[in-house]
């Protein structure tokens, strides 16, 4: 299938899913609401369906302008898409920050232990003794009833207006790099300032994600636009590949989340 040549092989199942959503909407004329998608998945949806603007419209919403994970509505072009159609709810819980320190992974672990799938959850913000969670409306009653503790701290989630959402604005710092190849270990070494050996260890220990998925192959070839995250060292992205130097090195613009 010609469309596959623009994407990585591991993205093909998601591409098939998106194309089936398109067919479903075109056949039924009924809007399709997706689960929460990560930014790479959102990008794929836009790349595949954005060219059909005379027939379909595609809109994303995750709670605020700065949301990372979003649900998408695919609808016939004449349909009016409203915020309510996304069924994104904000849940808030208060915890005693003097006595317990909660991190993103603690909250995520509590949800996973209840069998709640990641795709039903949007962004999670933790600040000032509050946990803010964006969730699909269909799982909100289950969360409120079953998620009563995180890290041994009693907790109670209640629905809160989206207007009170804790907003996390991101600041990225760009830098110019010259690298020998686009291998994952080479790029991790360069962006995070570690040795090639340490970069390889991080990858082999499953501490590195590319486009929100763990990659364990040091030779994995990165592309322009790829998002990286290294456990304990933050997130980064390959902003641009700008050709080669006279010595045949690759010129790359990278960005790191501060």
What share of the residues does DSSP label as strand, in percent? 25-35%
Report the major sheet.
Answer: 6 strands, antiparallel
Oligomer: single chain
Strand order of the largest sheet: 10-15-14-13-11-12
- In whole angstroms, the N-to-C terminal distance is 40 Å
Helix content: 10-25%
The low-confidence parts are none
Mean pLDDT: 91
Rg over CA atoms, rounded to whole Å, is 20 Å
Q: What coarse outline follows from CA principal-axis ratios?
A: globular
Number of strands: 15
Q: Count of helical segments?
A: 6
SSE order in H/E notation?
HEHEEEHEEHEEEEHHEEEEE
- Global structural class: alpha+beta
Search tags:
258 residues; alpha+beta; 32% strand
Can you walk me through this structure?
The chain has helices at residues 12-28, 39-49, 104-113, 140-146, 184-192, 196-204, and strands at residues 32-37, 56-61, 70-76, 88-94, 121-127, 130-136, 149-150, 153-154, 158-160, 172-179, 208-210, 213-214, 227-230, 234-244, 250-257. The protein has 258 residues and is α+β, with helices and mostly antiparallel strands. The two termini are 40 Å apart.
Topology summary:
Blueprint: H1 12-28, E1 32-37, H2 39-49, E2 56-61, E3 70-76, E4 88-94, H3 104-113, E5 121-127, E6 130-136, H4 140-146, E7 149-150, E8 153-154, E9 158-160, E10 172-179, H5 184-192, H6 196-204, E11 208-210, E12 213-214, E13 227-230, E14 234-244, E15 250-257
Antiparallel strand pairs: 1-3, 2-3, 4-6, 4-9, 5-6, 7-8, 10-15, 11-12, 11-13, 13-14, 14-15
């Amino acid at each position: 299938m010609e469309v596959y040549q623009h994407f990585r092989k591991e993205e093909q199942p998601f591409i098939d899913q998106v194309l089936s959503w398109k067919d479903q909407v075109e056949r039924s004329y009924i809007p399709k609401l997706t689960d929460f998608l990560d930014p790479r998945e959102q990008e794929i949806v836009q790349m595949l369906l954005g060219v059909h603007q005379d027939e379909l419209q595609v809109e994303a919403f995750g709670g605020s302008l700065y949301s990372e994970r979003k649900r998408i509505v695919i609808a016939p072009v004449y349909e009016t898409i409203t915020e309510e159609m996304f069924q994104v709810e904000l849940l808030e819980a208060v915890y005693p920050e003097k006595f317990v320190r909660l991190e993103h992974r603690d909250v995520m672990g509590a949800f996973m232990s209840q069998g709640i799938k990641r795709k039903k959850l949007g962004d999670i913000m933790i600040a000032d003794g509050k946990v803010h969670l964006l969730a699909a409306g269909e799982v909100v009653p289950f969360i409120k009833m079953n998620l009563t503790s995180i890290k041994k701290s009693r907790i109670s989630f209640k629905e809160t207006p989206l207007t009170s959402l804790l907003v996390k604005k991101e600041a990225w710092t760009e830098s110019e790099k010259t690298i020998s190849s686009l291998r994952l270990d080479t790029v991790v070494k360069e962006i995070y300032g570690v040795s090639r050996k340490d970069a390889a260890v991080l990858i082999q220990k499953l501490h590195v994600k590319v486009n929100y998925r763990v990659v364990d192959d040091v030779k994995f070839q990165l592309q322009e636009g790829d998002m990286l995250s290294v456990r304990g060292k933050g997130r980064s992205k390959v902003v641009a590949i700008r050709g080669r130097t006279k010595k045949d090195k690759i010129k790359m613009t990278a960005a790191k989340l501060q």
